[in-house]
Design goal:
Blueprint lengths: L1 H16 L4 H4 L1 H14 L2 H10 L2 H5 L4 H19 L22 H24 L7 H11 L2
Keywords: Golgi apparatus, GPI-anchor biosynthesis, Membrane, Signal, Transmembrane, Transmembrane helix
Protein name: Post-GPI attachment to proteins factor 3
InterPro entries: Per1-like (IPR007217)
Length: about 150
């Protein structure tokens, strides 16, 4: 019991010491996001943001704060490059330009193809293995859950 408590305290301490990516910690980025959200993400400004936001962006779940983070990420990247520094990561990821509503189109395409391959293999499994086989339903359920 004491060992478990010690591990829990150690884990909590490690989480407290952990910090975000370089870009997240940058005061310019944080100030930009704060000002952008105050200026654009409340009251009439939020209504204006929603009215000019493309429908595909709202359907994909992009919010006003998300848009502020995206825009401020590029402001910060510009300052880093202007000063001759390397491009920092933001939220644990490298900055990518948004295409439609995908910020990482190659990753999104790879995920889609992975899901498609899982679906094809699930269909093959269901047609070639009898439903009365042991573990059939377990395999189908696992394939369905892991493909999501």
């Amino acid at each position: 019991m004491a060992g478990r408590a010690a591990r829990l305290v150690l884990l909590a301490g490690a989480a407290a010491v952990a910090s975000g990516s370089q870009g997240d910690r940058e005061p310019v980025y944080r100030d930009c996001v704060l000002q952008c959200e105050e200026r654009n993400c409340s009251g009439g400004a939020l209504k204006h943001f929603r009215s000019r936001q493309p429908i595909y962006m709202s359907l994909a779940g992009w919010t006003c704060p998300d848009d502020c983070k995206y825009e401020c990420m590029w402001v910060t990247v510009g300052l880093y490059l202007q000063e001759g520094h390397k491009v920092p990561q933001f939220h644990g990821k490298w900055p990518f330009s948004r295409f439609l509503f995908f910020q990482e189109p190659a990753s999104a395409m790879a995920s889609f193809l992975n899901g498609l391959a899982s679906l094809v293999m699930l269909c093959r499994y269901r047609t070639s293995v009898p439903a009365s086989s042991p573990m059939y339903h377990t395999c189908v359920a696992f394939a369905w859950l892991s493909g999501r």
